[in-house]
Write a structure and sequence with these properties.
The complex is a heterodimer.
Chain A lengths: L23 E5 L6 H9 L10 E2 L2 E2 L7 E4 L11 H12 L2 H14 L15 H13 L5 E5 L7 H18 L2 E6 L2 H7 L2 E6 L4 E7 L11 H13 L8
Parallel strand pairs in A: 1-6, 1-7, 4-5, 5-6
Antiparallel strand pairs in A: 2-3, 7-8
Chain B lengths: L3 H16 L5 H24 L4 H30 L11 H10 L1 H35 L1 H14 L8 H7 L3 H26 L3 H9 L4 H38 L5 H10 L3 H29 L10
Classes of the chains: A alpha/beta, B mainly alpha.
Chain lengths: 240, 309
């Protein structure tokens, strides 16, 4: 039955998943399967019609600095310099004075000290996204939600940034939930891959990627994961 | 062509000399002094620029404009003083206007001072109130519900239409004029602030919330900075309109200022003084406009592709 205009649709249905602390988990699936909705719910920007989301024992009731969010568009505040963008979370929480020393540390962590006083429109896409990551991480979130953070970057920058995100993750062991369209990216980066399907969105399958990091994108085991996922999503070549 | 300006100066003054036997000697004298200054200074600059690259760049940019402006004065002289093509006393020549400018300088300076005080007090009041009401209307939907109809009804009325009422209500003409100027500025400032605030990108607000922002941060650190480009458009519109209200209010009610001076000089049919006041006004308003542009350029350094004034 086609949707009546303005009718609300069930975006997600019967989703139940648990992510252990310190894990990097990817969420992949076709467009419109509700990946981003799930992420917004986790961030607390939207609230579910039924069911609940917990961080530890605590129910998610609204947005909080404990759950950082990085979008595909870096969404840097264009009126603030790189340094002030990174400071934004500290200013918002009123802890800038106490934690000012960390600002330089995070700028160094993402390699942007030289651009401290630049405005965002001078930055390349990869640089802007690194600022965005630092801005989220300076709050020491328990969970970092990544909504296709590398989706707008060219292929080479993208692979470099995957290593960058992994380095940040290994360095800090922040729990990360990564939404991506890119199967290679999911295999390259995550501990587990959750595959979602469409209308209504559900998590259909969970794959544990038990490869040692750093992973080789062209190794046989990597490609085995790849074809397994492609097959599951019905994209596998018929000839193979 | 670095000698274009002195040559244009000589031509324009030569044009005046052709007819000067009809002119009062005092007018010709001060006109002559002005042109000796123009010619002298421009020759010094033309020589200095060979040693000074920054000056050369500036001159290359400005020289055609200066040359044209000086020749235009010559054309004005020809049309009015030379051939009497325009009716007197309404259109005096440049020498007569210059004479009025010099002889009445004390009163003109005083009038400019009064205009400045009145304009700044009214404008500042209007901007402050406009920013507050604009932010409230742009941010809160219930304020928008009640505020917008009021804004839509009252805002479009030209502030000068309130003059009869304003003169009755308030204790002094100065206060009521400042209020009218404030009203003039308030409408565009409110409208453009409100639209800037309500068009804040939702994703900026989302990001700020996940960074731990409360309402104060969302308003003062996200919505208002994001709305600044739009706010400045409102400030410019308000400034242009406030010049009009200032001049009208001064010529109708207040007994001081440039607007009053113009209508007073007109009453005595001293059109040289009218033109002198218009020249002062052009410089005065243009300077204030330039200052606002400079302020905007400072505040909005983060924006790319701005219009230069």
């Amino acid at each position: 039955m086609p949707d009546a205009p303005g009718a609300s649709r069930l975006a997600l249905d019967g989703i139940s998943l648990t992510i252990a602390a310190g894990e990097l988990v990817s969420l992949i699936g076709p467009s419109g399967c509700g990946k981003s909705t799930l992420l917004r719910l986790t961030a607390g920007l939207d609230s579910p019609d039924a069911g609940e989301l917990l961080v530890g024992e605590e129910k998610i009731l609204g947005p909080s600095a404990e759950r950082g969010l990085v979008f595909q568009d870096p969404n840097l505040f264009p009126w603030l310099t790189v340094r002030r963008n990174i400071e934004a979370g500290l200013v918002a929480r009123g802890v800038l004075e106490a934690q000012r020393h960390e600002v330089s540390e995070f700028m160094r962590l993402v390699g942007l000290e030289a651009f401290a006083n630049s405005y965002p429109h001078h930055l390349s896409g990869g640089m802007a996204q690194r600022v965005s990551l630092a801005r989220a991480l300076i709050n020491h979130p328990k969970v970092l939600l990544l909504d296709e953070p590398l989706g707008a970057l060219d292929a080479f920058t993208r692979m470099r940034m995957q290593d960058e995100v992994l380095r940040l993750w290994e360095n800090r062991r922040t729990t990360m939930l990564l939404v991506t369209h890119d199967i290679d990216e999911a295999i390259y980066m995550s501990d587990h891959i959750l595959i979602m399907t469409q209308a209504p969105g559900r998590v259909d399958r969970e794959i544990d990627v038990d490869l040692v990091r750093p992973r080789d994108r062209s190794s046989e085991s990597f490609l085995r994961f790849r074809s397994e996922i492609l097959e599951y999503l019905h994209f596998a070549g018929k000839a193979a | 062509m670095q000698f274009a300006v002195p040559i244009a100066g000589l031509i324009t003054f030569g044009v005046h000399l052709l007819f000067s036997k009809n002119a009062p000697p005092l007018e010709t004298h001060s006109y002559m002094l002005l042109f000796w200054e123009i010619v002298g200074v421009s020759i010094v600059l033309a020589v200095a620029q060979t040693f000074w690259p920054a000056l050369r760049r500036w001159m290359r940019h400005m020289w055609p404009i200066f040359t044209a402006a000086i020749l235009l004065i010559g054309v004005w002289d020809l049309i009015t003083f030379g051939f009497h093509l325009l009716p007197l006393p309404y259109f005096p020549g440049p020498a007569a206007v210059l004479r009025s400018l010099i002889s009445d300088r004390a009163l003109l300076l005083d009038s400019t001072g009064h205009s400045l005080v009145l304009l700044l007090s009214g404008y500042t009041l209007g901007v402050v109130v406009g920013l507050i009401s604009g932010v409230c209307i742009g941010w809160s939907s219930s304020v928008r519900y009640w505020g917008m109809p009021l804004l839509k009804v009252i805002g479009p009325i030209p502030a000068t239409a309130w003059i009869p009422l304003a003169m009755v209500i308030s204790p002094s003409a100065i206060v009521s004029s400042a209020g009218l100027i404030a009203l003039t500025v308030w409408f565009p400032a409110t409208m453009l602030t409100a639209s800037g605030i309500s068009n804040t990108r939702a994703s900026y607000l989302d990001v700020a919330r996940t960074l731990g922002a409360g309402r104060a941060y969302l308003i003062f650190h996200v919505a208002i900075p994001g709305a600044l480009p739009s706010i400045f458009v409102g400030l410019f519109m308000g400034l242009g309109a406030s010049f009009l209200t200032l001049v009208v209010a001064e010529s109708v009610g207040v007994k001081s200022g440039l607007g009053w001076y113009v209508s007073w000089a007109q009453g005595w049919a001293e059109y040289g003084k009218v033109f002198a006041a218009l020249i002062i006004m052009a410089g005065f308003f243009s300077t204030i406009m330039t200052l606002l542009f400079k302020l905007r350029d400072r505040v909005l350094v983060w924006q790319k592709g701005m219009i230069k004034w």
